[in-house]
Amino acid sequence: xxxxxxxxxxxxxxxxxxxxxxxxxxxxxxxxxxxxxxxxxxxxxxxxxxxxxxxxxxxxxxxxxxxxxxxxxxxxxxxxxxxxxxxxxxxxxxxxxxxxxxxxxxxxxxxxxxxxxxxxxxxxxxxxxxxxxxxxxxxxxxxxxxxxxxxxxxxxxxxxxxxxxxxxxxxxxxxxxxxxxxxxxxxxxxxxxxxxxxxxxxxxxxxxxxxxxxxxxxxxxxxxxxxxxxxxxxxxxxxxxxxxxxxxxxxxxxxxxxxxxxxxxxxxxxxxxxxxxxxxxxxxxxxxxxxxxxxxxx
Length: 298
Known about the structure:
Layout: H1 8-16, E1 28-32, H2 39-46, E2 52-54, E3 65-71, H3 77-88, E4 94-98, H4 101-109, E5 113-116, H5 127-142, H6 149-173, E6 177-182, H7 186-200, E7 205-208, E8 227-232, H8 236-245, E9 248-250, H9 257-278, H10 289-296
Parallel strand pairs: 1-2, 1-3, 3-4, 4-5, 6-7, 6-8, 8-9
Helix pairs in contact: 1-5, 1-6, 2-7, 6-9, 7-9
């Protein structure tokens, strides 16, 4: 099996060269996407960008709304249905990011702005193409001044250490139920959970700090389940919570937000593959997701 995460440096380099259309955000910015195509929108929020995310069949827009619509495959029923919902409301300030499929056809038929990214990957492997494109778009729209090359740098500079650490982390997770937490990088915590679910077919969960400190942390008091808390990010509340619940603490290697995001998502992917190997699971094979997709697309 090809370890596509080890190809991310090249993917980011290619993505940086992709052209994006001119995009000027209006008063409200919305994001339509789900699963591996949805998490990049959540990461925009981690960067402090005011964006409302729709990860379902419906979305609301008006004359003051701009929309980013993402489906790597171009066949995601929920996102396509939500886009049609937006189009019925009559407002077309939309950029579509996809590699293929019905979504591309809709964008062409409706004359929507379109960014075509390379196809042929699992959605979770395509993150460099999706997220780099998003950063370039919001840079133009909001004048953020983010340096997209930091995405590639985070992977290239962190890869050697995270290849090693992913083996250690997978060993600690095996046999436990990991729960990922963060205050400042909640999208990264969610991505860790998703990667273990899909690649390793392994239960994993996530929650947000400090919300979990007002309820969920009590579940660790009596040790009634084999939970393994793992806390990510830089903020002080992450440190304080880790002390209270005796969590594994993953502090980023970097301080620049884009480098933090790309490097930690690399770690998430590598860890999930290491765990899959220990469990003799094929990361490419899916059992239940295709079943629910067939039911929701009919």
